[in-house]
Amino acid sequence: xxxxxxxxxxxxxxxxxxxxxxxxxxxxxxxxxxxxxxxxxxxxxxxxxxxxxxxxxxxxxxxxxxxxxxxxxxxxxxxxxxxxxxxxxxxxxxxxxxxxxxxxxxxxxxxxxxxxxxxxxxxxxxxxxxxxxxxxxxxxxxxxxxxxxxxxxxxxxxxxxxxxxxxxxxxxxxxxxxxxxxxxxxxxxxxxx
Amino acid sequence: xxxxxxxxxxxxxxxxxxxxxxxxxxxxxxxxxxxxxxxxxxxxxxxxxxxxxxxxxxxxxxx
Lengths: 193, 63
Known about the structure:
The structure holds two protein chains of two kinds.
Chain A: H1 4-22, H2 25-41, H3 49-74, H4 77-93, H5 114-117, H6 121-133, H7 136-146, H8 152-158, H9 163-186
Chain B: H1 5-14, H2 22-34, H3 36-58
Helix pairs in contact in B: 1-2, 1-3, 2-3
């Protein structure tokens, strides 16, 4: 039997993780509750907090994937993503000159001390804002790849997307996130507070 | 044939998702040697991946 205080202490991280990917507070709450209930009612023996967390996270991960899978069956994901891609592609194209080389003003810069940022709570707030700023379906493909750590081929297959389309979507998402972090966090001299 | 920055960024992203072919790796390497912007882009992508991994592992490992 699991300690209730321990279970409760896991909730915020799990909820944050589910919320980022599902973008629906009620759905995220349900998924986390289901995962925690499964842990409480399980007679599995856990060796410490870390083991419980790994186990509960595994359940949550499967629940998120199920929800994404269901959702992708009932919607035309590919069409939604194409529509989202137009604005992202426009922003991307604007980074380059006519010869497809960087505009001097938008050339990617050196990000100072990125490892330090990973220790900074404020960075994580910006990071989440940037993730939430990505269009929903594009972000979902990206997070399946980078958060749920599926192979790209599995992501495409689960969501019924072609491989080349998958690559395009991931490229768009990475660039969108990159631009947001560059402007919102790493831009030199713009953090007066 | 040298590649431009647009092609290079696309290949850098695909390199996160599939093993690049020898020819692709060579063209990319030659481009990166002469292009600071794309070298930075490459580092930025690597950073984004490590940030994502850290965020998702925070949900898995007790701190």
